[in-house]
Amino acid sequence: EKELTYELLEKYRLFVLKQIPLDKKPSLESYEENEISYLTGNISSIGELGYLVTDLDENGTPEVIISDGKVIYDLYTLERGEYFHLFSGGEQNTYELCKENYIFNTVSDGEGGTTYQYFRLNGSELLKEVSLVHEVNAEEENWYLMGGFQYSIHRIPIDKEQAANIIDSYPTLEIEITPFAEKEEREREIP
Fold first, then answer.
1. Nearest Cα to Cα of residue 75 among 48, 59, 57
2. Helix (H, G, I), strand (E, B), or coil: what is residue 125?
3. Rounded distance between C-alpha atoms, residue 115 and residue 136, angstroms
4. Which of 118, 121, 99 is nearest to 173 (CA)?
């Protein structure tokens, strides 16, 4: 387990180091193929990123969070003897860690619509707990609580205060990362 974790972290570290300075960015396809968030292309030093090895769903299997301490760039879980990539964050699709290990996802459509989703991890699945949609246009602002299954059309209108109460009930946390280093650190303790 520790060796697999080390291999994942080293692969990530080396990929990110290759793109610094910023004029050496790989193609978008390269990020996807390597299961690494393209957001790493915006950092100027490897020390801006780090990792947290933790058990988010308390099933005895470690997850690896790659983060800048606030936003989750990538999340991996150990499954059947190898790391499985759960997601990569992006500029209009961000992830954060919340109290009680909820994962907060904000998705912006770029046209005044934002979806706020709260997930729980169960093995290699993200299970949606709550989903809110916020729509803003020139005439009005609307909030909806989404019901049913993912991508459901069940939209229950709620007011701004109800939306704020839901959002406030899932406070985001600072992620206590171990920063990546310029040189390989095989001797560093991996939980």
1. 57
2. strand
3. 12
4. 99
Calculate mean pLDDT across residues 151-171: 89
- Determine contact, residues 7/81, Cβ cutoff 8 Å: no
Per-residue pLDDT band at 126 (split at 50, 70, 90): very high
For 82-101, how does the pLDDT look when each residue is reduced to its tens digit (9 = 90+)? 999 999 999 999 999 999 99
Mean pLDDT for the stretch of residues 98-123 = 94
In the three-class reduction of DSSP (H, G, I as helix; E, B as strand; rest coil), residue 95 is classed as strand
Q: Which residues of 27-64 are buried (b: 16+ CB within 10 A; e: fewer)?
A: eeeebeebbbbbbbbebeebeebbbbbbebbeeeebbb
Q: Write the DSSP symbol of residue 25.
A: P
* C-alpha–C-alpha distance, residues 86 and 78, integer Å: 10
Q: Is 132 in contact with 119 (CB distance < 8 Å)?
A: no
Name the helix (H) or strand (E) containing 52. strand 50-54
| DSSP one-letter code for 56 | T
Task: Name residue 105's amino acid.
Answer: N
Computed over every residue of the chain, the mean pLDDT equals 89
Q: What is the pLDDT of residue 188?
A: 57
